[in-house]
Write a structure and sequence with these properties.
Elements lengths: L1 H17 L12 E5 L3 E8 L2 H8 L5 E4 L1 H4 L7
């Protein structure tokens, strides 16, 4: 019994590690909350500049464009 539980737990851990993580849509993290307590690139979870500014309001933080978005290779269609 103990061996089968250990085998199932090992198999579940292997599947969890091997499966790719879901990628966030690039438009969801276009702006980053940056500052001394956030570091670089900061808290990059804002789709609009206004959302980022609302979170930065009243703190010493500021908003900047996400470097992953800014320096991403351009797609040509």
């Amino acid at each position: 019994m103990r061996r089968s539980i250990l085998t199932l737990a090992s198999l579940a851990a292997l599947i969890a590690v091997a499966s790719p993580a879901a990628q966030a849509h690039p438009a969801n993290d276009r702006y980053c909350l940056q500052g001394r307590m956030w570091g670089y690139p900061g808290n990059c979870q804002f789709a609009t500049y206004q959302q980022c500014q609302a979170s930065a309001s009243g703190t010493s933080a500021y908003c900047g464009i996400n470097p992953r978005y800014a320096f991403a290779p351009q797609r040509y269609y």
